[in-house]
Amino acid sequence: MDNQWGRLGxxxxxxxxxxxxxxxxxxxxxxAGVLAxxxxxxxxxxxxxxxxxxxxxxxxxxxxxxxxxxxMLRLLLSAVILAVAAPLGLEVLLGVLTGxxxxxxxxxxxxxxxxxxxxx
Length: 120
Known about the structure:
- The structure is a single chain.
- The chain has one domain.
- Helix content is about 80%, strand content about 0%.
- It contains five helices and no strands.
- α1 crosses α5.
- The longest helix has 28 residues.
- The radius of gyration is 16 Å and the shape is flat.
C-alpha cells in the first residue's frame, strides 16, 4: 500500500476510460454514472489507505476499531451514492456501480502484477 497516488491515478484512468467507452457506444447515462461513482471510489481508497497506514505494525484494539469504522463508513458512502442513483434509472445506477468498483479493478491489476512477478 505504498503507492497511494499511483493507485488513485489508476482509479481515475479506469473511471474516465470507462466513461469514454460508454459514451462512445451511446450509453450517456452510464457514462455520467461512472463519472459520479469514481470520486467515491477514490475517497474509499484514500480512507482505507490512511487507516492501514495508521494501523501500521501495532494492531491494538483501538487501531482495529478505527479500521472497522472506516470500513463501515465506506459501505455507507457507497450505499448512499447507489441509493441516490437508483431513481435515475438502471443505466445510471450500473454506471455508478462501475465507478464505485473502480477501486476493486485497480486491486485486480495489483494482483495480476503480483502473479506475474512484477512489483506494483
